[in-house]
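input
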Amino acid sequence: MRQGTTVQGHPCPVSAGSSRGRSLKLAAVMAVAALGAAACSGDPAPEPPGVGAETPTILATTGIWADVVANVACNGLAEVETIIPVGGDPHGYEPSLQDRARMENAALVVANGLLLEESLEDTLHAVAESGTPVFEIAAGMDPIPYGFDTGHDDHEDEDGHDHDEDEDGHEDEDGHDHAHGAEDPHVWFDPHRVA
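output
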């Protein structure tokens, strides 16, 4: 998915996932429904950013979450776009002024959380303070502890060379400049948590 690409036409799957997953979906559907109701109301009060005669725009930090949100925001209730372009690294993506303006004008910004988008943290906080709702998906899930077999293998040998004999003296450097805490921010690796 390219930056600014609208994701529409996704079917709305019905899942027999966990109650936490159903609660997360219900919360997201309710948020989209509330935005849709606000957009259709005849109230002459000032409209929040991203809500009006047009379809509200929901921004997701990554294409993964844009696809999930598009499956929840069915039938054109919202346009879903990404912030980080395809191939961009969510761990180190630096938002532009245009990205910040898009976030402030969105009806909702959806982020992973757990410091996946660590370089976006300050911008996400500022956007939330400006009045745009920011929803961190991982905040509503049981996080994956590191060491849990997700197929991610804790970044071992991702770059194809032996870290112990790295000629420039950098050990265990795999292209990710984020600190590994006790919780893995890559929550989509466990589909049961996402469902």
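quick obs: The CA atoms of residues 44 and 60 lie 29 Å apart.
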